[in-house]
Amino acid sequence: MDLAALENQTRAERWEKGVKIGEGTFANVYKGTEKATGRKIAIKKIKVGEMKDGLDMTALREVKFLQELHHPNIIGLLDVFSVKQNVNLVLEFLDTDLEAVIRDKSLIFQPADIKSWTAMSLRGLEYIHRNGVLHRDLKPNNLLIASTGELKIADFGLAREFGDAKTRMTSQVITRWYRPPELLWGARYYSPAVDMWSIGTIVVELVLRVPFLAGDSDIDQLKKTFHAMGSPTEQDWPGHTKLPDYHEVAGYPPNPWWNLVSPLGRDGQNLCRELLKFDPMARVSAKAALHHKFFTTGERPTAPILLPKPLAELRPRDIAPQDVAGMPDSGTKRKNTTPNGTEQRSIARKLFA
Amino acid sequence: MSTSAARPTLKRPVNPVRRPGASVGMRRPPGAASNGPGAISRGAGLAPGSKGNDDGYLYVAGVRDPSKRVTEYRTEQDVCPVCQTDRQFNKNLRLLVSPCYHKMCESCIDRLFTLGPEPCPQCDKVLRKVNFAHQTFEDLKVEKEISVRRRMAEIFNKRREDFESLRDYDDYLQTVEEYTFNLLNDVDVPATEAALSSYTTDNASLIATNQQKKAMEALSQTERDEVEKRARAERIHMIEEAERVDRAEEIRVKAEIVDALARPSGGQELAKEIADRAAKAKAARAAALAATVPPSLAALYNVKDVDETPHSPNSPSYAGPYVPIPYSDPDEAEWSHWYNLKDNYADGRAGVVWAKEDREGAVRGGGWDISLFWEMEVRSAVEALSLEPLA
Ligand SMILES: Nc1ncnc2c1ncn2[C@@H]1O[C@H](COP(=O)(O)OP(=O)(O)OP(=O)(O)O)[C@@H](O)[C@H]1O
Ligand SMILES: [Mg+2]
Ligand SMILES: [Zn+2]
Ligand SMILES: [Zn+2]
């Protein structure tokens, strides 16, 4: 056995793998413990990918980003080891996710709770964007909740670095219901604004307790979006008709959709409108959103420990939400997102949390 | 128990969903009085000013068992819609009802369904003889009313704000009321069904949006219930507290009166004065108690002024952008003051030139932002300056 293999084995032996607690499209997640301390952890075992050499890009991306990103609102990566050709990520253990919280109808959300979850998501995301990374798969199920109530952004399997000039990026990212119109129209040059849209739809979902824009196909997604918010005009969003997959979805009249989130008050409504601007250039950035009045005036955001949480541990879950009828696929996902070599650029960063 | 329902002659039904009025489709003959105890008065649930002429109402007459429960409805006007037999011709005519709420006489049911399942002569739904057997008319009335109203409410959930004018909204409500009437009374069913299904397809997304609004309102209702529950508990607590104060006061006043009466002179007057003052104070406390709104209710119903003063970093609940400690504000990083970004740079790299020109319009619409790109490059270069060199 060579040295690397030996080291891998000793690392693997630090962790005890327990029952399966979650399944995503590309990974199985198991509960586990650190043998030495008994601390609870999660092991995310990436399913064997389609890559010829057996090493999935998904795993590589996720490991790469999680190793570099350290922030209280981003899931912590504790270790990586491989068994046969599977990559295993050892992650801090988190009790539940925002989707389970939203679906638990016995929980009542106060506006201050929504303010708190939104602030925590934005803090994590601001840090991700500041470090030149696009998450590209934000949805309630990828926002995990720690036992302390703290929200942590997880699942970096679709993340990539912000594109260099003239670097084409795939538009097949972000689960449909949370996907912004520029991606639905096939934009290949986009920005962190794509993640901001996802946050906007998540905030509205926190109020409605059902997904805000639940399209059942990409075309239907555009229709639902514009039906809810009115069709964009060239003035609202310069250049949108030039997008590669543009087709007219006109004729929906403007609609004061922000009345849907009136429980958040005037400032909350305004923040939602800023997050869900059609024009990605006009959409608020994570940093600017954090400075929005919504967070600094009126009711204080609920302290994480006091946030509503499902009483019962919802795990183990039998089926991935993606397998449930009616849940949208996320794009064509990993297969399409292999970086084509030259795209990748390395940014020297001093990570500053 | 008979009820009346209005035909869609109304200018503007108050609330098409909750209006009372069950109907099994028997029209009331002109001049006939409504039957049975508990009949809802004709005008019930109608918008003020609507005409209440007899012609507009339906009624149902009932046959009651000794417990006064309606077991079967029959009227002199009953006609089998299939064979046209009426009560004048057959005194014992018995109309039964299918799951699709279509009536038929017993002999028609025998004739049509003895050999097995057959389509309903009125709507083509496949029926069996047993399907007719079990329902009383009263069940039917309730069930049909509920199922039709529920179905209508699900599809026709537009709100005032979905219309430009009140008039359009009125017209819409009236149309809904017509459809409802038709379905409840088996009038123009195929045409009505066709209209419903084309409305549903045309308005699919608005229907969905309004269903979401309803879900949200349901949420605020739960919140409201929760608050009211808390308020009730607070109220009970307030009353208990007031009673405790009253009892303590009573004891104190009694002692004072005893002392006053023990005085050698003027004791009587003083005692009376004390008693009067105590009675007034008690009344004042009762009034104050009645006027006090439990805190949770006050918070709910009073329009809260938004506190516009920014949260202060020293307050324990401070939740500014990058808190709690040990997060830190990136703008406070040492190197963040080492550079100033410009709006534009002379950047001759091919990709940058291409993106700046954006001849194909590929960049603008997707939101790729050259200034973000520059910012990232400059910042990461500067950040690198603060890194310890590798050994
Ligand atoms: N650290 C953790 N602690 C507890 N549960 C976790 C943890 N990480 C993931 N899970 C659970 O496993 C599920 C799948 O994990 P994850 O989203 O990372 O996988 P994925 O295959 O990339 O998923 P997706 O299909 O959503 O992209 C999550 O939704 C969550 O319920
Ligand atoms: Mg996931
Ligand atoms: Zn007949
Ligand atoms: Zn029928």
Brief account:
The complex is a heterodimer of chains A (353) and B (391). Chain A has 353 residues and is an alpha+beta fold.
Textual characterization of the structure:
Chain A: Belongs to the protein kinase superfamily. CMGC Ser/Thr protein kinase family. CDC2/CDKX subfamily. The complex is a heterodimer of chains A (353) and B (391). Chain A is α+β, with helices and mostly antiparallel strands. Chain A has 2 domains: 15-94 and 311-349, Phosphorylase Kinase, domain 1, CATH 3.30.200.20; 97-306, Transferase(Phosphotransferase) domain 1 (Transferase(Phosphotransferase), domain 1), CATH 1.10.510.10. In chain A, 28% of the residues lie in helices and 14% in strands. Chain A contains 10 helices and 10 strands. In chain A, the strands form 3 sheets. Chain A has a 5-stranded antiparallel sheet with strand order 1-2-3-5-4. In chain A, strands 6-8-9 form a 3-stranded antiparallel sheet. In chain A, a hairpin with a 3-residue loop joins strand 1 and strand 2. In chain A, helix 4 (111-130) runs antiparallel to helix 6 (193-208) and helix 6 packs across helix 8. The longest helix of chain A is centred in the middle third of the chain and has 20 residues, at 111-130. The two termini of chain A are 39 Å apart. The radius of gyration of chain B is 38 Å and the shape is flat. Chain B is mainly alpha-helical. In chain B, the strands form 3 sheets. Chain B has a two-stranded antiparallel sheet. Among the domains of chain B are: 57-138, Zinc/RING finger domain, C3HC4 (zinc finger) (Herpes Virus-1, 2-Layer Sandwich); 234-299. Chains A and B meet through helix 4, helix 6, helix 7 and helix 8 of A and helix 5, helix 8 and helix 9 of B. Residues 21-22, 24-27, 29, 42, 44, 75, 91-94, 97, 137, 141-142, 144, 154-155, 157, 322 of chain A line the site of adenosine-5'-triphosphate.
